[in-house]
């Protein structure tokens, strides 16, 4: 088993190393060889050969995937295809992924995926619907500042070739509802009927919550409710995940047990149900990984073979990444794999513990293993994370089977009960969000990474409670260190650091040893500007000024006096000291 985990890790590092520099490749290989030295049972000639095959096999799979990116779209284009997911709001636009089957009058050799950004959309497109669209194609924008959102890289991870920009004056035409008998089209038609049943629920927010829990459909959930789930650290409950798959398989096997049927008899029924639910939920990477692992476990149960969680996890990861290697960059996939690794590889709760103690223990284990990913991706840690998950987790587990039965049967009593349960969930989230005060953090520094790693080692390997309590203390110290580093002055005394983002003058950030100021053009840029300061390592109090034109850098020195002589990069840092300056340009 240890060798399978080792080879799977080598394959994952090979996929990641494809996008790294040569120094990163050397670091990945060195880490694997250090692992071998730490575990002498792995130090064998055959293991070394298989290690190199797995590592460079992952690198080659990433290379082959990029070789398939031949695309001749440019400027105004006319495309025809169907929606892959439900439309969602992105600023003032409606966005969705679109599978292109025809460009102009010619069918494409290989289906292409585009991100459609439709400003002023007055239509109601649904997954599987076929549309004709005319718009302007772009490759996606790069980051406006170091650590900012890189739209081009994100599109690559999602398998999309670019962005199709539409406005209300572009020609669009609805052609047909989902057609055909492919698994995706069948799932779209069934999902449309099930969503129509949910329309009978009068309470709009309760209806949106049930759709989110059952299908991962969070687009209709109001922004303030999504913010409440984010503040309480329970946003993952709104996404279709491995918990839903495990519940579905458990319900089928449990129903068979009540009827006197053994689990192996109902395994052939549970497998297509799990796969079908993955298509209903949109085949997101996290749900696909969970469905693959559960199907493998059910297959072993049906064949009368013993199953091992590590074997199922490793095999599902291999199958999915060989099919689509870009899933390794998907945040949902990373969190799903990390949570399973923590629950399988972490310490087991004692048998004599009660439900509450076991739930708290497992919640902390899953939260600890996913902490580095959450910290790096979101930069916020909810103070009510454990309490909210303990309270809302069981309620959502109950809401999922109820919502699924409601959408399949349309029974009035279930409809009423699920509505009241959803409203109670919303009330609880609102109360918990009032108590929560999320901790804003900068990207984790090296010391914090080290402390979190030591905490993981102490929690998974320690058998005494004193050691496990020490892991909790290490986590708190790492969070405190990250917060303290962000509150330190970013420049020494006598120096002024000015940062400017593209387009020139849109956001200007002036840092001194004593204060931080942000100059923006529009009010809506405030959130983006604050995110920029946090990602660049600043948590100090900020003074935000909107519409200022004459920006004083220091006494007697205005930004307008300096800016005409600076290069026009997408991001610029200007260090002003004394009567001179030096700059660093990126992009």
Quick summary of this structure?
This protein is an alpha+beta fold and 587 residues long. The chain is built from 19 helices and 17 strands. It is globular, with a radius of gyration of 26 Å.
Fold and architecture overview:
The chain is α+β, with helices and mostly antiparallel strands and 587 residues long. The protein has five domains: 2-67, no CATH class; 75-179, Nucleic acid-binding proteins (OB fold (Dihydrolipoamide Acetyltransferase, E2P), Beta Barrel); 208-436, no CATH class; 446-486; 495-586, no CATH class. Helix content is 53%, strand content 17%. It contains 19 helices and 17 strands. It has helices spanning 2-17, 22-38, 45-67, 151-157, 183-198, 204-215, 223-232, 242-258, 263-280, 285-302, 309-323, 331-345, 355-378, 385-409, 412-435, 446-461, 465-486, 525-535, 559-562; strands at 75-83, 88-90, 93-103, 106-119, 130-138, 163-166, 172-176, 380-381, 439-440, 495-501, 507-511, 516-520, 543-546, 552-554, 557-558, 571-577, 580-586. The strands form four sheets. The protein has a six-stranded mixed beta sheet with strand order 13-12-11-10-16-17, covered by helices on one side. A five-stranded mixed beta barrel has the order 1-3-4-6-5. A hairpin with a 5-residue loop joins β10 (495-501) and β11.
Topology:
Blueprint (H helix, E strand, L loop, with lengths): L1 H16 L4 H17 L6 H23 L7 E9 L4 E3 L2 E11 L2 E14 L10 E9 L12 H7 L5 E4 L5 E5 L6 H16 L5 H12 L7 H10 L9 H17 L4 H18 L4 H18 L6 H15 L7 H15 L9 H24 L1 E2 L3 H25 L2 H24 L3 E2 L5 H16 L3 H22 L8 E7 L5 E5 L4 E5 L4 H11 L7 E4 L5 E3 L2 E2 H4 L8 E7 L2 E7 L1
